[in-house]
């Protein structure tokens, strides 16, 4: 595959070390971890610790929090590289890089001190952001005028929370959480929700079921349960009932990094397809010499290059808003990359013939992984609807 569009020597050095990390720490273990029956066993805290040693867990943060303030474009390149090795590892770190950065921006100074310093000093610390609940998935993405069912009622000095979240990436393993809850029951999740900061082990806040996923298995997802959970006022992020403003600020980087993760899977599929078609002989010549396959390989490359260009443009503009940012860039790059990845993964299966259906080929894992971002970070159809809301129709 062509080199990612690298602009600086610093980016090259970072990407070289990410490639080393993937080949030494991720590739040798990914298939075995993916095959574990209990989803909890698919998660590797050792890999997170190895990523921390290379600065990959904190790189988006300021130096005082252990980072080097990588920009959105460089971070997107890193996330794509990680996903070439394994999608789950890419998601564990992408969530952590973007949510911790979001925390750095939206927490007040006291909250930053009590979360980002322990986060920096704990090499296994990862983080979660928690909106989805059984009754509200796409509603939260599009911003429909309905309330969250997870509620926090005002009491002396704080709030009493009850309800549950589900599908939350990293959550059974996370140390810190940003959680959206309804605090004004008369209003909708758009104008009546509050974002709360919580630490693992907070009384009344427990982990529920860990979801057994079809793919992206090296990342865990779980339910979060709140039972008469007292949350002090000091844990409100921003203003009470101001959750949507916090959520909106998270949107662009979330979508861009989700797109970068799934793009890495598309690249892994493409490389496998190219390799197999250059080796496998049918009809007296290599598959790559048959016009149907040749054209398919070229179309795969086109889909990858176009998705990457879209992601990189959105990533650059996310840091240079005055140069032409528009709000659809916070929804569409992931939709495009995930559709491309799904098409490329199914073609990869086809190009490998019967061999691709056998687990030993490693293609079936890529197909399971490729499905993850058709839904994660917003189902594509709902992202199209959200983007349409920013177009003057
Ligand atoms: C791997 C994974 C990781 C995730 N990680 C997180 C996380 O870290 N934090 C978090 O908060 N959430 C997370 N989610 C949740 C994810 O954001 C939701 O699954 C997603 O928003 C869809 O919600 P839903 O599953 O309830 O589907 P639903 O909202 O029930 O949607 C079902 C179908 O109906 C369609 N639909 C819904 N509304 C409309 C409409 N108005 N018009 C047309 N069609 C519509 C959808 O497009 C979809 O096809 C994760 C999900 C997955 C799969």
Question: How would you describe this protein?
Answer:
- By secondary structure, the protein is an alpha+beta fold.
- 50% of the residues lie in helices and 15% in strands.
- The chain contains twelve helices and ten strands.
- The chain has helices at 9-34, 45-53, 72-85, 87-106, 109-121, 138-142, 243-279, 291-319, 332-351, 353-357, 363-370, 380-388; strands at 127-130, 151-155, 158-169, 176-182, 193-199, 205-210, 221-232, 236-237, 281-282, 285-286.
- The protein has a four-stranded mixed beta sheet. It has a four-stranded antiparallel beta sheet with strand order 2-3-7-6, with helices on one face.
- It is globular, with a radius of gyration of 21 Å.
- Flavin-adenine dinucleotide (FAD) binds at residues 128-132, 137-138, 141-142, 167-169, 216, 221, 372, 375-376, 378-379, 381-382, 385.
Number of domains: 3
End-to-end distance: 39 Å
Can you write the helix and strand succession as a string?
HHHHHEHEEEEEEEHEEHHHHH
* CATH architectural label of the largest domain: Up-down Bundle
Mean pLDDT: 96
Question: What is the count of helical runs?
Answer: 12
If you compute it from the alpha carbons, what radius of gyration comes out, rounded to the nearest whole angstrom?
A: 21 Å
The CATH H-level superfamily of the largest domain is Butyryl-CoA Dehydrogenase, subunit A, domain 3
So what's the overall shape? globular
Fraction of residues in helices? Answer: 40-55%
CATH topology of the largest domain: Butyryl-CoA Dehydrogenase, subunit A, domain 3
Task: Detail the poorly predicted runs.
Answer: none
Strand content: 15-25%
Mind telling me the CATH class of the largest domain?
Mainly Alpha
Bound molecules: flavin-adenine dinucleotide
Spatial strand order of the main sheet: 1-4-5-8
């Amino acid at each position: 595959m062509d080199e990612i569009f690298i602009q600086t020597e610093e980016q090259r050095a970072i990407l070289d070390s990410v490639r080393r990390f993937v080949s030494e720490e991720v590739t040798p273990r990914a298939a075995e971890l993916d095959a574990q029956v209990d989803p909890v066993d698919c998660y590797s805290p050792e890999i997170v610790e190895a990523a921390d040693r290379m600065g990959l867990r904190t790189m988006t943060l300021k130096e005082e929090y252990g980072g080097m303030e990588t920009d959105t474009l460089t971070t997107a390149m890193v996330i794509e590289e990680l996903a070439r090795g394994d999608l789950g590892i890419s998601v564990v770190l992408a969530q952590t890089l973007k949510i911790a950065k979001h925390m750095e921006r939206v927490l007040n100074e006291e909250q930053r001190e009590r979360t980002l310093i322990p986060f920096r000093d704990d090499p296994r610390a990862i983080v979660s952001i928690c909106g989805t609940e059984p009754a509200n998935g796409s509603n939260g993405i599009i911003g429909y005028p309905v309330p969250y069912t997870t509620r926090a009622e005002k009491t002396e000095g704080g709030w009493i929370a009850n309800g549950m979240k589900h599908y939350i990436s990293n959550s059974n393993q996370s140390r810190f959480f940003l959680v959206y809850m309804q605090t004004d029951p008369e209003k909708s999740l758009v104008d009546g929700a509050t974002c709360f900061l919580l630490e693992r082990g907070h009384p009344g806040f427990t982990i529920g079921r860990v979801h057994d996923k079809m793919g992206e298995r090296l990342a865990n997802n779980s339910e979060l349960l709140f039972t008469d959970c007292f949350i002090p006022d000091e844990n409100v992020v921003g203003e009470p009932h101001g959750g949507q403003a916090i959520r909106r600020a998270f949107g662009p980087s979330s979508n861009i990094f989700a797109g970068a993760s799934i793009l890495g899977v598309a690249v892994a599929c493409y490389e496998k397809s190219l390799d197999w078609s250059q080796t496998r002989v049918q009809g007296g010549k290599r598959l790559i010499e048959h016009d149907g396959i040749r054209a398919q390989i070229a179309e795969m490359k086109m889909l990858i290059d176009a998705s990457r260009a879209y992601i990189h443009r959105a990533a650059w503009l996310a840091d240079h808003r005055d140069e032409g940012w528009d709000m659809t860039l916070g929804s569409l790059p992931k939709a495009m990359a995930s559709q491309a990845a799904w098409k490329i993964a199914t073609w990869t299966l086809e190009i490998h013939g019967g061999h691709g259906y056998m687990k030993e080929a490693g293609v079936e894992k890529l197909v399971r992984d490729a499905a993850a971002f058709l839904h994660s970070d917003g189902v594509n159809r709902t992202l199209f609807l959200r983007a349409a809301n920013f177009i003057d129709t």
